[in-house]
Amino acid sequence: MLVLKKGATKGTPDHTKDQLVWKWLDGQPTSQDEFGDPTRTTGYALCVYAANGRLLSATVPADGMKWSRMKTKGYKYKEELGTADGVQKILLKGSVENKAKAVVKGKGAALPDPVLGALALPVTARLMNNDTSVCLEATYDVGDVIKNDTAKFKAKAQ
Q1: pLDDT by 10s per residue, the chain, length 158
Q2: What is the rounded radius of gyration, in angstroms, for the C-alpha atoms of the chain?
């Protein structure tokens, strides 16, 4: 699922209410090693592309205070202020079956500000890191789109 929402108060743009949610569920087998080590050296970037180009890129650096290890499964990131491009939470969970998952959530004025409105499909979201070759990706096309207007893009892969 991918949600990009432009915030507004009484019809006036309000970037403090902008939102980003990306959920990559039931993904291919992915080990904790493939995630790198975001508590020390591995930074992450979520990039979203429409058919005609990049919409946004949100980068979260490695940080031993904001990233924590989840035993042998993965990592989680938590930073309520969203100082890293508005991103407040990331969950990276590996699995030996097709149950790996990643979740990225952000909100507020620090989020990148994509231009919404009848986005050219397909729309692709990619979560990549700077240390390993892992790239978690989901593509949303006509049958996946729930809303695609100037205020909100929402899609859920079938």
Answers
A1: 999 999 988 878 899 999 999 999 999 999 999 999 999 999 999 999 999 999 999 999 999 999 999 998 999 999 999 999 999 999 999 999 999 999 999 999 999 989 898 899 999 999 999 999 789 999 999 999 999 999 999 999 87
A2: 15
Residues contacting 96, CB < 8 A, separation 6+: 29, 31
Model-level pTM greater than 0.85?
yes
Q: Which of 28, 32, 59, 53 is nearest to 138 (CA)?
A: 28
d(CA 45, CA 85): 10
Would you say 32 and 105 are in contact if contact means Cβ atoms under 8 Å apart? no
What is each CA distance from 55 to 4, 63, 117, 130, in whole angstroms? Answer: 10, 26, 11, 20
CA dihedral 58, 63, 69, 72 (to 10 degrees): 80
